[in-house]
Amino acid sequence: MSHLIVTLPGDGIGPEIIEPTLELLEAVGDFEFQEHLFGGASIDAHGTALTDEVLNACKRADAVLLAAVGGPKWDTTDPSEPRPEQGLLGLRKGLGLYANLRPVKPLPALYEASPLRRERIEGTDLLVVRELTGGIYFGEKTRTEDFASDVCGYSREEIERIARTAFGAAERRSSGGSRKPKVSSVDKANVLETSRLWRQVVSELHAREFPQIELEHVLVDNAAMQLVSAPRDFDVILSDEAAMLTGSIGMLPSASLGGDTRSPDGSPGTGGPGLFEPVHGSAPDIAGTGAANPLAMFLSAAMMLHHGLGLESEAAAVESAVEGALQAGLRTADLGGSAGTKQATEAVLANI
Questions:
Q1: Rounded Cα gap, residues 237 and 227, in angstroms
Q2: What range does the domain containing 87 cover?
Q3: Which long-range contacts (CB under 8 A, 24 or more apart) does 46-53 make?
Q4: Stretch 325-342: mean pLDDT, rounded?
Q5: Average pLDDT, the chain
Q6: Residues of 290-329 as b/e, b for ≥16 C-beta within 10 angstroms?
Q7: Where are the alpha helices (DSSP H) in the chain?
Q8: What is the DSSP letter of 192?
Q9: Are residues 339 and 264 part of one domain?
Q10: Residue 149 near residue 141, CB atoms below 8 Å
Q11: Contacts of 84 (CB under 8 A, 6+ apart)
Q12: Alpha carbon of 76 to those of 13, 47, 73, 265: distances in Å?
């Protein structure tokens, strides 16, 4: 059975890392790819970062694979001018994506590439869960010559569904092992009213549906400190601070899922598409040089195979191929080596 994948190369190094990703996917399965302009490239062609045509194409797909968006060319402080990032927010809203999953598990081959000492990161295996549709990104915005505001708001429903995703993920991660499931809910409850509601709702849901899972509330300042001092103490956490634990942000994949996608454990949902993308940006400074690290893009494709399409063996094959290439000595420039996009792709394909 062929799966329809909409690909959004985007900007900067995006086209350079998505092309070898499609080659990798073709080596493990049967897929139909449909490419569309998105982000800055779409602004240049259509005056908007996300057209209705592209959004509708994404809705019809089995999954959406996004490379990177943005760059200095489209940076502006004028609220009337389009920005590439608006396309990403529009895609999340249009597809109903509310849960962003970011696994952080440093590979032994890259322990020495992390800025943290080996003994600090060894054994780290955590999952970052982010809420995507509430909060300051989607709140009402005002702007005058001398004043601007962004409303940060969360409903009980939004908090409950993302908390349920986190608790469910912690439960599945501990299944069959000796590890006790734990969720670290990060907030700013000492200052923000939204965080106080967040903490209350998460606590109530925990007591009602997930009492068997350990829950801790952590202020964001303390969470940032603990992430670099004792990352292995975390299981499921809400934060953006975890990137460099892997040795490079070029190694971090992500999945954005919603109520109509497959559930976060990969079981079938009602059939809508998820969005899969590397955490890194468009890196315009190295675009066109052939130096881009495609590994986070490859691992995002593996998350698509698992969470988006339920193709477990194919997902495992991609993850194993990336790990095998690194164990054999593959190092891109961001990992302290000299391999470019082409060499990295060949090394991973050789391990399929």
A1: 10
A2: 1-110+248-352
A3: 47/82, 48/82, 48/86, 48/87, 49/82, 49/83, 49/84, 49/85, 49/86, 49/87, 49/88, 49/90, 50/86, 50/87, 50/90, 50/91, 50/94
A4: 94
A5: 89
A6: ebbbbbbbbbbbbbbbbbbbebeebbebbbebbbbbbeee
A7: 14-28, 40-46, 52-60, 84-95, 118-121, 156-174, 193-209, 220-229, 295-303, 312-327, 341-349
A8: -
A9: yes
A10: yes
A11: 10, 11, 39, 40, 43, 49, 69, 70, 71, 74
A12: 21, 14, 9, 39
- Strand, coil or helix: what is 92? helix
The pair of structure tokens assigned to 178 is 């000796």
Name the pLDDT band for 174 (thresholds 50, 70, 90).
confident
Q: Residue 163's domain is classified under what CATH number?
A: 3.40.718.10
Residue 331: CB partners within 8 Å, gap ≥ 6?
A: 113, 337, 338, 339
* Closest alpha carbon to 297 in 251, 257, 332: 251
Cβ atoms of 39 and 65 within 8 Å: the answer is no
Judge residue 178's burial from the number of C-beta atoms within 10 Å of its C-beta, 0-12 exposed, 13-18 middle, 19 or more buried. exposed
- Cα dihedral angle (55, 56, 60, 63), rounded to 10 degrees? 0
Which of 203, 218, 246 finishes a domain? 246
- Across the range 260-279, mean pLDDT stands at 62
DSSP-assigned letter for residue 23: H
What are the pLDDT digits (tens) for 196-255?
A: 999 999 999 999 999 999 999 999 889 888 888 888 889 998 543 444 455 556 688 999
Q: Domain count for the chain, please give it.
A: 2
Cβ proximity of 227 and 241 under 8 Å: yes
Q: Sorting pLDDT into bands at 50, 70 and 90, what band is 77?
A: confident
Considering the domain architecture, whether residues 227 and 285 belong to the same structural domain is answered as no
Is the pLDDT at 64 greater than 70? The verdict is: yes
Distance of CA 255 to the CA centre of its chain: 5
Q: CA neighbours within 13 Å on the CB side: how many for 77?
A: 4
Domain boundary among 230, 246, 262: 246
